[in-house]
Structure formats: structure tokens, C-alpha cells
Amino acid sequence: MDRLTKHFERMAGDVGATGVETNGEADHVHLLVEYPPNIVNPYHTRLQS
Fold this sequence. Notes:
alpha+beta, two-stranded antiparallel sheet, 27% helix
């Protein structure tokens, strides 16, 4: 997990984001990433009423 965490932190830094926390199990990973508002997040969805 340590190698993977360092890799994700480097990738986040490449786009101006910060890797906050990484954890997971053998078959999946959880990532918490903080990114500035000028980065477009394609996974962000907007709730509409």
C-alpha cells in the first residue's frame, strides 16, 4: 500500500491536487484527494431539484 500511496500522491501533485488519505483492501483502494476549484472533476455530479 505504501508504494501505491506514493504513486497516487505524485499523480495528484502533477495536476495541482493533494493526496489526503489512502487506504483499502487487497481488492480495492480508497482515495481522498483535495483539489483546487480550477480543476474540473469529471466525476462530480450536480443534484437538481
